Description:
By secondary structure, the chain is mainly β.
Amino acid sequence: AAYCCTVLASGCKQNDSLQIPRGERTNVAGEFCIIYLHCNILNCKKRVADMTVILCIDNNGGRMFHGRRQSRDGAVTEKIREICKGKKLWMNAYSWKLYGNLDGVETVSDEEFLTKARWEDYCLSESDRLSSASDKIHAVILFCWNRRYPSDVSLDLDLEQWEKTMVLEFPGTSHESIKMEYYKRSGVLS
Length: 190
């Protein structure tokens, strides 16, 4: 199993064998680590914040209705391609039909993608419940349709506890205006 040393305020204990300053990224025991505080490392644990999730939502947080995506827009598809270029983008078979052939992006279709994605991977989720994988998510990219659609699948992450670090508004091909919001888990470097 891959283990990564991650120091949080409550976990800081004395150990003179390894000191890493706040914000420094380092490799410990073959795994990429981010140290959040100037602190000594004593305990190692499994890394939990691995992936960035990409979602499309309406003004009410809706994502799907009767097994179908609420909407789609070519400008959003292009933004996703730009964000993920040179990286791995995981998704389920339903999303693969629309997003499976993004130029320059290594796309992977797997129904268990939320459990298989790793550090620096992206996951496109249209229908999957995210609450069960929330401990693995270190960032969320929301594309907001700026409209209300009928929905029966909604965003199930409480982003009130996350830090919004960027908002970008751009014209869509079928939507007058689309907003892209970037959230990172509080206390996690991006």
